[in-house]
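Reader question, answered in our methods column.
A reader sent in the components of a multi-part assembly and asked whether the whole thing could be modeled at once rather than chain by chain. We filled in our standard form and ran it. Here is what they sent:
COMPLEX SIZE: two components
ENTRIES:
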Amino acid sequence: MNKDLPTNLLYNTDYSWVKIEGDIATLGIIKPACDKIEEFVFVKLPEKGQKIKKGETYSSLEAIKWSGHLSSPFTGEIIEVNEEIFDEPSIINEDPYGKGWIAKIKLENEEEKNDLLTSEKVKDV
Amino acid sequence: MKKWRILETIEESGAKQMAIDEAMLIARINNLVPNTLRFFTWKPSAITIGFFQDLEQEINLNKAKDLKVDVIRRYSGGGAVFHEDELTYSLVVSEKDLSLNILDSYKYLCQGVIKGLENLGIEAEFKPINDILVNNKKISGNAQTRKEGIILQHGTILLSVNVEKMFSLLKVSNEKLKGKMIASVKEGVTSIKNELSSSDLDMKYLEKVFRQGFSKTLNVDFEEDVLSEKEKDIAQELERDKYLSVDWNYKQKYNNRFYGKN
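And here is the structure of the entire assembly that came back:
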């Protein structure tokens, strides 16, 4: 059980969080990971309007002590992208569950959320 | 003891080597293959840049063309690296199988190189974030990337260093600083040939000592294997469509902001 994670969010296996409101999912990086890997320096983002399939990369990031690619947990359409983090990636570190969100996806198949983890199933970072 | 796969050591172009590394990562994500170690060498010599770097800013491209040195963007992060007389390793490992915190994997996986050097009689140490030093001189640089809980780590093990050639290929923002930088890199970098005062290294022997190093520190048995057919297909496609393409290698700076519309 990872007691540092908000219980109202769902989680992927790659240190990302997912907030589902209706058929819209917002994605970002969890705070315990942000704290450990230090400041994000580069971000590549998805494009608004882009169709994405489950498993496709929607964002790539590099922090001082980490580099990785995030896979979409959903098939759907990217309806919003947080372009502020492109110019200032450290916003992700400052406010990972708020201003540091990465993208919003309109879901085609809400059942895909069943593959995500609840906070108690996420291992310590 | 856990069983991991070790692949045959191959000498190939940088585009092919980087395509194979990513194919192994994809296959591991899809649980088609076990955790894997492989060693390889570069022919021709190559410069790789990190995922987010700008090729034209980092590399003297005319010089690279003259010297027939390949240039390739990596899928991993980090900086520009000149690959010539070196043994390179790649590891594809599930984070779950390591049970380490997010920062400890570099140190843990680098222990295999350190143990291999020790097998050769060279005492080395890990220096965060991702270097291995011998008497404070760098002998190995390592880079990582992660996707869906799988780590791809590849690293150099320097057999010799040609600092002048390296600096003729890598751009230094201030030409006046170049001489100083060459001198300081010469001071700060070493190699196996340098440490052993020998120019005659048997590659088969080197592979063996580093394989033993990884086996011992990771506490795994390596089973010799070849790339799966699926990995070969993915690697072939990635080499052709990605790592040999102008779009991937050169134009990243123009489209770095976004993954494009499908």
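What stands out: The mean pLDDT of chain B is 93. Chain B has twelve helices and twelve strands.
Send us your own complexes using the same form.
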